[in-house]
Amino acid sequence: MSAQSRLGRRLIQLYVGLALYGASSALLVEAGLGLEPWGVLHQGLAELTGVSIGVVSIIVGAAVLLLWIPLRQRPGLGTVSNVFVVGIAMDATLAAVPDVHGLAVRIPVLLAGILLNGVATGLYIAARFGPGPRDGLMTGLHRRTGRSIRLMRTGIEVAVVVTGFLLGGTIGVGTVLYAVSIGPLAQLFLKVFAVSSASDGSTVVAAGQPRGAILRP
After folding, report:
1. Which member of 42, 46, 197, 207 has the greatest number of CB atoms within 10 A?
2. How far apart are CA 126 and CA 121, in angstroms?
3. How many other CB atoms sit within 10 Å of the CB of residue 147?
C-alpha cells in the first residue's frame, strides 16, 4: 500500500470511527439502561442546562482539552476532531432514531450500542491520529504524577460517574456491561482495523505499548 493510500485509509478510519462512536453513544442514551462513564456526566449536564447532550459533549471535550496545557500534552488531528465529530454525530443520531420502548427493544439497542462502540474505538485508535481529550487527560496525569494509568483512569471515571449521576445521568446495567466488555471489544477491533506501517509493512494499531492502548475517545 502506498503512503498516500495509507494516509487516505487512516483519515477515513478516523472520521468513520468518531462518527460511529457518537452514534453508539446515542444508542446507549436511547436504550435508557445505563451509559458509559463520560456519557453519564454529559447526560447529567444536559439535564441541568437544557443543552443537547451532543453539544455538552463538545463543551466538555473542549474544556478537558484545555487541561492538557498544564500537563504539556500535545493534541493531534484525532484529538481536535474528536471534540466536534462525536458530539455532532450523537445529536444527529438521536434526532434520526425514534424513541424505543419496552425491554424487548431496549436491550438489543443497548447491545448494538456497545458493540458499535467497540467497532468505532478500533477504527479511530488504529488510525493513529492522537488520543481523545479525555484519554489524553488520563495519560497526562499519569506522566505528571507517576501514578499508574489504571489508577488515573479509575479515579477520573469514578469522579465522572458520581458527578453525572448526581446531576441526573443514567447509571444501570448498561454501565456495568459497557465497563466489562469495551476492553475486549476494542482490542479485537484494533487488530481488525490495523493499518500497515510505512516502514516495514507490519501492522500497527496504536502508538506505545499494547497495555497502554487507549480505549475511548
Report:
1. 42
2. 8
3. 12
